[in-house]
Design a protein that fits this description.
The complex is a heterodimer of chains A (294) and B (284). Chain A has two domains: 211 residues, Bacterial phosphonate metabolism protein PhnH (Rossmann fold, 3-Layer(aba) Sandwich), CATH 3.40.50; 44 residues, no CATH class. Chain A is α/β, with parallel strands linked by helices. Chain A has six helices and twelve strands. In chain A, strands 1-9-8-5-4-2-3 form a seven-stranded mixed β-sheet. A three-stranded antiparallel β-sheet of chain A has the order 7-6-10, with no helix packed on it. Chain B is an alpha/beta fold. Chain B contains ten helices and nine strands. Chain B has a six-stranded mixed β-sheet with strand order 5-6-7-3-8-9, sandwiched between helices. Chain B has a three-stranded antiparallel β-sheet with strand order 2-1-4, covered by helices on one side. In chain B, α7 links the parallel β6 and β7. Chain B is globular, with a radius of gyration of 19 Å. The relative contact order of chain B is 0.17. The chains are: A alpha/beta (294), B alpha/beta (284). At the A-B interface, α5 of A face α2, α4 and α5 of B.
């Protein structure tokens, strides 16, 4: 029998072809050079739908090397469906080692969280971003938001924060709190909780934010100032979990998930699954905690 | 009174300000204007909205601009407020770079800064001047934030003060202008325009579309603010009653040109230009 060769086709290392990877790497370099600036990039077709983590995959796959140790989390968890599927995909396409251990990983892809554990200068973290434009909520036209960024015209954003304070007594932006990067561009840190926002500033690791559907990526380079927008008298605050301990580990001072067990009872569990495992084992990995202003 | 010869003391100096829509050629300005009773260039159909505008405005002075629809009076102040880009001309403000820089050549950033700190504008339609998605207080806050004030408490105090001054109930500060009456919307616009104590205020047909009693109150308010703050104003109106009530000096525009200028009383009592005579006689 003459065997069909059709299905023997193997993919390029890390799925994306080398020219496209180079293009994405160039765009990442540009984004590093202009912290917080959204760089348009090619966003090639991937075997998952746009908006399901393609942006993160583009960035991860274009910078991953054979020696990298890859970790991927979804809402803090290594075990959620999105994370498992993308981890399998990256492992099949690169044969790289994967890990749950935050400290061991050299490349971490994430959706909606930055790990609790302090990341070091040998680590890169890639965020999957649904909407890279922080001004979208106040200005619907793309051509106008680009002009606003170019001219650093952020009054509308400030008025939106003022309005939020006037309406609700507090700035209500929960996830994706707008930040100013390196004193210039206003950026959305992707929908991470406010808890994680102070950990972007002056961090030793490189942050890459990539939105596949919107075809934009932006970066926060290591040791770059990231300041949440705040008024002189209405300050940025992180979520508080006062007197709350994790039901699974007994740990505290971490971002907690609120889990309802029945109609009347609820418990809190540490959201970052690797951090939770370590706390359970009696370790307490190094963390940077933000103190809310009194 | 002709102040154009005096070289000192002015606040705003405008020289040869021109706006042409479409394709201007060298003779566009030459073959349009009141002499031809048209502002359309016969060669290219370019529209000469205003051309060869020269005047000086002095501190505390109120200058009126009258003219029929399409005479270029709104275009003129939109050019000064950077809502539109001028085709040619020079504009100087004594408060900016010691009057050395032509405002029209500034970068967009500096234009916006000048506009936020040195100018205020009240449009005929409140929808042009206010963001109806924000509260009245938020609209005033926008102007204050753009000028670099980032203290919510102080912003709210200032907004409440301004709304009180313009007789908008302070209790409605956090409501959107869409829930306000026309007269109230116009007063919120005025509060926003004077939020940063600008030395220069533009009023574009502020009372058109308001009923007579509200008109009178808005005009009273403007007069009162002018007296208290000593702000210079350029008032655009087709209503000679408004011009008579508010302004010291008046320029009459037709087909994009100034056809006559002088003291308001003089213009209204003793109009010289044929068009001004027509305007005055048809309104009396």
């Amino acid at each position: 029998m003459i065997a069909t060769r059709k299905f023997e086709h193997t993919y390029n290392f890390a799925f994306i072809d080398e020219r496209t990877k180079r293009e994405i790497r160039r765009k990442i370099l540009k984004a590093i050079a202009i912290p917080g600036y959204q760089v348009p990039y090619s966003s090639p077709e991937m075997p998952i739908a746009r908006g399901w983590g393609t942006g993160g995959l583009h960035a991860s796959l274009s910078i991953i090397g054979p020696d990298d140790v890859f970790k991927i989390i979804d809402q803090g968890s290594d075990a959620s469906v999105n994370a498992c599927n993308l981890r399998d995909f990256v492992r099949r396409m690169t044969s790289c080692r994967t890990t749950f251990d935050t400290a061991e990983a050299t490349l971490i892809q994430t959706r909606h969280r930055k790990p609790e554990e302090i990341l070091t200068e040998r680590q890169i973290i890639v965020f999957q971003v649904p909407q890279p434009e922080p001004l979208r909520s106040v200005e619907r036209y793309e051509f106008k938001t680009r002009i606003m960024h170019a001219e650093a015209d952020y009054a509308k954003m400030w008025v939106a924060l003022y309005e939020s304070y006037v309406k609700f007594g507090a700035i209500m932006n929960g996830a994706g709190y707008p930040v100013r990067v390196n004193g210039r561009y206003i950026m959305t840190p992707s929908p991470i909780p406010r808890w994680d926002v102070p950990n972007l500033s002056m961090a030793p690791c490189l942050h890459v934010f990539s939105a596949g559907r919107e075809k934009r990526l932006h970066c926060v380079p290591p040791f770059t100032r990231v300041e949440p927008l705040e008024f002189e008298d209405v300050k940025f605050r992180v979520e508080e979990f006062r007197e709350i301990v994790c039901a699974a580990s007994g740990g505290d001072r971490a971002f907690m998930d609120e889990i309802y067990e029945s109609e009347s009872t609820r418990k809190f569990v540490i959201n970052d699954s690797d951090f939770l495992d370590k706390v359970r084992l009696g370790q307490r990995p190094p963390q940077r905690l933000f103190q809310n202003p009194v | 009174m002709n102040c154009q010869d005096s070289d000192t003391g002015w606040l705003l100096r405008v020289r040869n300000l021109t706006k042409i829509y479409g394709e201007p050629i060298a003779t566009s300005v030459q073959y349009t204007g009141p002499r031809f009773n048209s502002n359309i260039c016969p060669e290219t159909d370019a529209i000469v909205a205003c051309a060869e505008i020269n005047f000086d405005l002095y501190p505390g002075e109120v200058l009126g601009i009258v003219g029929e629809s399409g005479s270029g009076k709104s275009t003129l102040i939109q050019l000064l407020y950077f809502d539109q880009v001028a085709t040619a001309g020079e504009v100087y403000l004594s408060a900016l770079d010691e009057a050395q820089t032509n405002l029209l050549t500034l970068s967009n950033q500096r234009k916006r800064h000048a506009r936020n700190t040195l100018m205020g504008m009240v449009y005929q339609n409140p929808r042009d001047g206010l963001n109806f998605g924000f509260s009245a207080g938020g609209n005033i806050a926008e102007k204050l934030l753009m000028a670099g004030s980032f203290h919510v408490g102080r912003i709210r105090e200032r907004a409440a003060y301004l709304l009180g001054k313009t007789e908008v109930p302070v209790a409605r500060m956090d409501h959107t202008p869409s829930t306000f009456s026309g007269g109230m919307q116009q007063r919120v616009q005025i509060s926003k325009a004077i939020a940063n104590n600008p030395p220069l205020l533009f009023l574009d047909e502020v009372t058109s579309g308001l009923d007579v009693s509200v008109q009178a109150r808005v005009l009273d308010l403007i007069r009162q603010l002018q007296r208290e703050l000593g702000v210079s104003m350029i008032v655009v109106s087709h209503d000679l009653a408004v011009i008579r009530m508010l302004t010291d000096r008046t320029m009459v525009m037709k087909n994009g040109r100034i056809v006559e200028s002088g003291l308001t009383d003089q213009i209204l009592q003793d109009p010289q230009h044929a068009y001004t005579q027509l305007l005055v006689s048809s309104l009396l």
